[in-house]
Amino acid sequence: MSREFRQIDVFTTGPFTGNPLAVVADAEGLDEDTMRRFSAWTNLSECTFLLPPTVPEADYRVRIFSLDTELPFAGHPTLGTARAWLDLGGSPARDDLLIQECPAGLIRVRRDGDTLAFAAPPRLRTGPVDPQLREAIRRVLGVSEQQLVDASWADNGPGWIAVLLDNAETVLSLRPELTRGGLDDLKVGVVAPAADGDADVEVRAFFSAGRALTEDPVTGSLNASVAQWLTETGRLTAPYVAAQGTAMGRRGRVHVDPDSDGTLWIGGEARVAVRGSLEI
What we know:
- The structure is a single chain.
- The protein is an alpha+beta fold.
- The protein is built from five helices and 17 strands.
- Strand 13 and strand 14 form a beta hairpin.
- The chain is globular and about 55 Å long.
- It starts with a strand and ends with a strand.
- The relative contact order is 0.18.
């Protein structure tokens, strides 16, 4: 069956500078195994499948896969799917707000031209990291005790641990090795004050794939939970801009903006890079 397909560049600052997302439209009738296999075949960090909503409050429903693993929520797939849905002719019930249904619940997405932003969801786990795990992460990252300022759980679904380092130079010099810490699985985000004048912090995200760590170009869910952690601990005040992808030759920018009720909105530009159809 032929289905509409979009590839979206999320958190971009120009052509092909952000994080790509594959979006399959009209996904009714696809079984879970087919979704997993197609997602893995794209070899992108995430692939999403658009479906009709099951609740009246939602504009659309999405299933999110990271290769062959389904995620309850992820940030860059949320914004990329919203852009694809609009490009495919979707008309939200509210002019400036889309409501996405996903396993994590109903996610609000604000629209302002090419810029989209999602409301940072509640974290499922917070608080200090166990000292033994913190030491293992320090060894994985290859940094000194003086360079590792703090570490905290920042899990809003994917399982992130956030690590604050001393400066952007340390962040950009990282060459992490999972085996150095004796760990089999890890999802860690690192952040530090940025040296670049157009961003306030430099961010990198690493997740385990087999026995190695893979880097994600620009990560919405991590930036959301890191923003909550940094603002709650008084280390940073929103609004601010995070740079991510620098070490990979990308130029992603994530904008963090506070609402009057304290909600943090995590946003950036999302542009259609590929339009087409696929047989699936």
